[in-house]
Amino acid sequence: MVLQTKSAVILLLICCIVTISCNNNKNMPLVPVDIDSIPTVHTEDVVMLISDSGTICCRVEAKCWDVFSNKGDSYTYLPEGVYVERFDSLLHIIGTIAADTAYYFEKKELWQAIGNVVVKNMEGRVFETSELFWNQKAPSNAVNAFYTDKPVKITEPDGGVSYGRNGFKADQSLNIIRLFSMAGDFNMEESADTLRRDTINTDSIQLP
């Protein structure tokens, strides 16, 4: 009889606690949660290989790797810096990309690099800008693989420097380049080891 009484008292106390808790929760405001702002995958200190049609095309290093796919169009956000090595079909490094922040849009195979973007191609040409897009799906000879409308500085292997005040476009190898609103100091001597500069119009040049 004593045990039954104790059990009844304990059960009564539990009911009181649950009732009080429920009443308190009713008075608490509900905080809406934006599901789209929460990554479906979060990884740190990432080293990843990305392939195209079964062939490895680049190696990516990032301190933080967040994948968002709540809207059906998956993209990756790299908020704490990224370093990319680009490969040819024989896995030779043909260029590098570094930036403070980056996005990678999976379906479009499009990179958006932001903040202190530095790109280097196999010949040693260096591009510096604040924002850059890289379309991996662009044909190798199409002058729309790399592009930006932000000011860009291009340093040649021979030390020549050129500027595109309104950005540039280039092919996958970053050898065919169109600078917009160009300015700079060039070594204009033509030889087998230098690039020919052909003026397209007053606002752009091409370096074939």
Report the structural category: mainly beta
Helix content: 10-25%
Tally of helical runs: 1
Shape: globular
Q: How many distinct beta strands?
A: 16
Using the CA coordinates, give the radius of gyration: 28 Å
Report the top-level CATH class: Mainly Beta
Query: Separation of termini?
Result: 99 Å
Query: Would you identify the CATH architecture?
Result: Sandwich
Order of helices and strands: HEEEEEEEEEEEEEEEE
The chain-level mean pLDDT equals 78
Number of spatially distinct domains: 1
- Detail the poorly predicted runs: 1-13, 186-208
Strands side by side in the biggest sheet: 2-3-6-7-5-4
The CATH topology: lipopolysaccharide transport protein A fold
Spell out the CATH superfamily: Lipopolysaccharide (LPS) transport protein A like domain
| Percentage of residues in DSSP E strands | over 45%
The largest β sheet comes out as: 6 strands, antiparallel, barrel
